[in-house]
Specification:
Main location: membrane
Radius of gyration: 13 Å
Strand content: under 5%
Subcellular location: Cell membrane
Pfam family, one: Transgly_assoc
Number of helices: 3
Distance between the termini: 46 Å
Order of helices and strands: HHH
Family: Belongs to the UPF0410 family.
Organism: Stakelama marina
Length: about 90
């Protein structure tokens, strides 16, 4: 069951990573592949932090929202870090 949950967060992160490109318009260093990988990491991180905090996620829309939030935050942080490095 735990493996299915992690796989679900990965797939959700992949989709949300793609969607985050529309939420955060502009050029992302690394292109679509990096954005999707950061989206996966954001979704997994969001799921892990919610579980560690004892937040119970019963609704699929809550999972989408949490994954989207984690992906957008990590993509924004990634852009900031890469922009600083290229200066």
């Amino acid at each position: 069951m735990q493996g299915q949950l992690i796989l679900g967060w990965v797939v959700l992160g992949l989709l949300v990573g793609l969607a985050a490109r529309f939420v955060l318009p502009g050029r992302t260093p690394g292109g679509a592949v990096v954005t999707m990988l950061v989206g996966i990491a954001g979704a997994l991180l969001g799921g892990f932090l919610a579980g560690a905090a004892g937040v119970r996620i019963d609704n699929v829309w809550e999972r989408y929202g949490l994954a989207a939030l984690g992906a957008v935050v990590l993509i924004a942080l990634y852009r900031i870090m890469v922009a600083r490095r290229t200066r």
